[in-house]
Amino acid sequence: MKPLFAKGPSLGVRLLVLAVLSVALMVVDARFDLLKPARKQASLVLMDAYWITDLPGRLWEGVASQFGSRTELVAENEKLKTENLLLQGRMQKLAALTEQNVRLRELLNSSALVNEKVEVAELIGMDPNPFTHRIIINKGERDGVVLGQPVLDARGLMGQVVELMPYTSRVLLLTDTTHSIPVQVNRNGLRAIASGTGNPERLELRHVADTADIKEGDLLVSSGLGQRFPAGYPVATVKEVIHDSGQPFAIVRAVPTAALNRSRYLLLVFSDSRTAEERANDAAQAQETLDAHGGGPMLPASVPKPLIMPATPSTAPAPAAEAAAPAVTPAAAKPPAASKPPAKPPATTGGRE
Q: Which residue ranges have biased composition labelled Low complexity (predicted)?
C-alpha cells in the first residue's frame, strides 16, 4: 500500500544541491559568456522592478513640488532670470568665437568636432555590492550606447559604460578600485594616472615623481591619451600631496569633481568614431562645398545656427574667408580659387583690415 504523502529528499540534501548549483552558475557567469543573453532578457523584466522601486521617490518629489512655498518659487524665478541674462551676455561673446573657430577649422580642412554629441540619461539603480562602484542608467544598446562610452555629469567625468543591455547599461565609476584614467594637471600639463580607491570621495595618482610640479588645489583634466575619454574634461581636484624623502614617488590624493553619489541626471558622450580615411574624405567634401560657395563660411551641423549672433554685418567676415581660402586650397588638391569667376564685388580693403 502506497503512503498518502510521498517523502522527498531531506532539507539538507535540497540545500546542498541548490548551493552546488549556485556555485556552478557563478563560475560559469564569471568565466564564460553563456549567461549574457539570459541576463539581457532578465533586464527587461527588472525594468518594471526598477520603476516600481523608484515610484515612491517620484511621488514624494511630486508632492513636495506641489506644496512648495510661493515665496521660494518667486525668489528662485528672479534668480534664474538674472542668471539667464548673464549667460546670454556671455553667449553673445562665445558665439562670435565659435563662428570664427568653425571657419578656421574649415579653412584648415580639420574634421575635429567643435562640440561632442551628448544624450541625457537618468540613474535608475546602484550595484548593491559595497566593494564595487557601479550604477545603472536608463539608456541601453537600443539607444545607441556602446561599451566604453564616457559618462559625465554637470561637474565632470563620472566613469564609462562596462555592460550593455537592451534598455539599460551599467557604468563603472572612476572611484572603483579596478578603474584608472590618464589625466594631466591643467596648470602645467603634467601627465599622470588617476586610479580609484574604493572611496567615492577620493582618487589617487600613481607613480608621480617626488619632484613633480603638482600642488594642492590643482585641477586634473582628462588627457585623452587612453583613446577612451575625450580630452579636457574635469576629473578631480588635488587635495593632498605628501612628499617622503625615502620614497621615489609622492603620495597624491584628489577629490573627484563629479558628484558621484549625488548626481541623478547624466550625460552620455558620443565621440567621433570615424577613421582617418573617412575624416580626410569628409574634409575634402567640406572643402569642395566651401569652394562652391565662393569661400564663405559654411557652418557644420554640430553648431546650432540660431545661437550664432555676429556683432558685425554679415558681409564683413566674407573677405577674410575669401582671402584665406587660396592658401589652403593647394593642401586639399583643389583648383585655385582665382580660376573661378568672382561671384562677389572686390573688397580688398576689408581683407587687409
A: 310-337
